[in-house]
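quick one before i forget lol
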Amino acid sequence: MKNIYAYFCLFTLIFSCNLSEKTGSNMKIKYPVTREDDIIDNYFGTEVADPYRWLEDDLSTETAAWVKQQNTVTEKYLSQIPFRAAIHKRCEVVFNYERFAAPFSEGEYYYYFYNSGLQNQPVLYREKKSGGDKEVFLDPNTFSSKGTTSISEIKFSLDGSLVAYNISEGGSDWQRIVVLNTISGKQVDDTLNYIKFGSARWKGNGGFFYTTYKKPENESLLSGLTDHHFLYYHKLGTPQSDDVIYFGNEHKRRYLGASVSEDSNWLIITATNATYGNELYTLDLRDSQKTVRTFAATASHGFNFIYSDENYFYFETDKNAKNKQLIAVPHNYKNENDFKIIIPETNEVASFSAAGGYIFASYLENAISVVKQYDLKGNYLRTVNLPTLGTATGFSAKQNDKELFFSFTSYINPTSVYRMDLTSGETTLYKSPKIKFDPSAYISEQVFYTSKDGTKVPMIITYKKGLLHNGKNPTLLYGYGGFNVSLTPAFRASNIILMENGGIFAVANLRGGGEYGQKWHESGTKLQKQNVFDDFIAAANYLKEKNYTSTEYLAIEGGSNGGLLVGATITQQPQICKVAFPAVGVLDMLRYHKFTSGAGWAYDYGTSEDNREMFEYLKNYSPLHNVKPAKYPATLITTADHDDRVVPAHSFKFAATLQKNQQGANPVLIKIQIQAGHGAGISTMQAIDQAADKWSFMFFNMNIKPQY
C-alpha cells in the first residue's frame, strides 16, 4: 500500500498534469499479497497446481480479509479517475426514466411492474379491469433499507384471490416464498424458506407445488453442492416441514420443473441433469392414486409445456426438429404415434406461447423477432405488427382473455408496451417511456463476419449517426456464446454514456448460443468450445479491420459464461484489446462442477473428470490455467459476495493469478460487490455504480476524456 505522502503526491499529479498523462497505466498499484499453497491435483497422470484454493472457502476470515484488501485497492484506483464523479452523475440522469413491464390479467385486476426512474426495485401495481386508479400492491423497496431485496417470481392462484411470490435477498438464488390474500393484502400462510430454483405452481386455491434442494449440511450455503432437486406440494395452513415430496425421491436429478394446467387438472413435470434436454412426466391431479405417467424417459431432447385444453397437451419440442416445433398430444396418449404436429419446424428458431385460445410462434430471424399468430389447429392467421427491428416478448395470456400486452425493445429503443386485440390482431401503443434520448440520432446495423473456420457470424453494431470510421472510436464488444441463450436486441440505458461520447456498442451472436437452433448451440459446446472464442476474436478483428476501432480503443465484456469468454480471449490473445471486463465468470474449468449446481453445466462444458481428452481440452482453454507472464489488457474483474450460481472463488483465483503475471503497466483489479448475487435483482443504485465504474475505467485506460 502507498503511504499517505505518496498517495497525496499521486493525487496532485493526476489533477495537475495534462490529459496525455492521465492514463490508467501511469497509476502505480501495489496489489495485496495473495498467499500460495502447495496444492496439486492429479488428472489422468497430469499434475495441476492450485495455489489459491484457499480462496474457495467463503466462510474463512482470511478470504474475507483478502476481499476487503482487494476492494480497497480497486476503490482507491477508481476514486482517482478525475471524471468518475461526473460519469456517475450522468448515469443517474440516463437511468432516471419510467420503465414499464407488460400488464398481466389476474382476477378482477391488471397487474404490472413499474419503476418511476431511480427506485431501486420495480413496484408491483394493479388497477381494476373495470376502471379506476392504480394502486401499489407490492413494493419491494420497503423490504430492505438498501434496496437489495427483490421479487424474483410471482404466481397467482386461478381466481386471483391468492398470490405467492419469491423474495431474493442480496441476489442469492436461495429465496423465500410468501403468500398473500390479494383482497386484504395480508399474509395467509407461513413463509417457506430455503427455496432454490423453484416458484409456486398453484393447484386451485388450497396449495401449490414448488421445487427446491435440501439445505446443504456442514457446507457453505452459498457454495455447497446442490445436486438433488425435489418437487414438493405445500398445503396452505400447514408447516413447511409437512410438505409432501411428489417427485425426485426415486433418484437424483439436478433440476426439476413443474407446470400446472390453467384448469388445475394436470401437473407436468420436467427433470434433467443438464441445462439442455429433459425427461417429461404428467400427472392427473384428479387421480386419487397420484399416478405419474412417463412421457419422455430420457433427456435427449427438450420438451416445454405450452398449453392444455379439454383433450390435448401442447408441447414445444426439438425432437425431430432442431429449430423446434409445436405438437399436440392426447391426454390419454399411448406412444409417439399419438403425437400430432401443429406448427412444424422452419428455418428459424421458434418459441411458442398460448393466449386466449391461440398459439403464438416467436421466430428469430438473425436474432431479430418475428411473431406469428395461429389457431389451435395450426392455421396461420397473421404476423404481428412490430414497430421496427428488435425484440418482442410477452405473447401469453389466459385462455379466456381477449387481449394481451407485449413488450418491444431494441438497442436504441427503450422498452415500450403494446396492447393486442387477439381476435382482430390490431396492435396499439399502450405505454412508452419518456427519456432524454433520441433514438433517431443513432443507428443499429447488422453485419456478418467470417470466423476462423469460415463460419458466418452475425453482429449488431450500434452508434451515433455520422460517426467516422477512423479507428479511434471507443468500442465495447459484448458476447456470451453458451447454453442455447440467444442475445437479442435490448435497450441498456448505460450504453448512452458510451454512444454519446462517440462510442460503439457491438454484440456478436456467437456459436454456443441459440440464435440458429440446437445445431448452432452444439457447435460451441464441449470439444467445440474453442469455436466460441474464435468467433469472438474474429468479431474483434472485424471491428478493427473495418476501422470502427483499433486495439487501443477496444474493450470486451461478458458475464457468467461470457466471463469465461472474456477470460479465455485475453489469455489466448493478451494484445487483442485495451480493456477487458470479465464479470461473474466461470474461470476455473477444472473445478467449476464442484460448487452449487455447477455440475449441471456439463452439457456445454464437459468436466475434467470425464476422460483424459476432455480434461486436456478444458485445461488448454481454462482461463485460470492459461495465465502466463504477459502484457494483459487493463482488466476489471467483477463478482459478488452472494453469487451462489458462479461462486466468486472463480474470480478470486483468476484475479490473484493475473495480478501475479501481469508484465505490462495496465491495471488488473477486482471489485467484489457486497449484498449482490449473479446479477438478477440488483438495485438501480448498484446498476448505476457498476456503469459508472465500467465507463470510467474504460475511458481512463483509453486516454479518453468524456464530454461531462
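fyi The CA atoms of residues 175 and 195 lie 5 Å apart.
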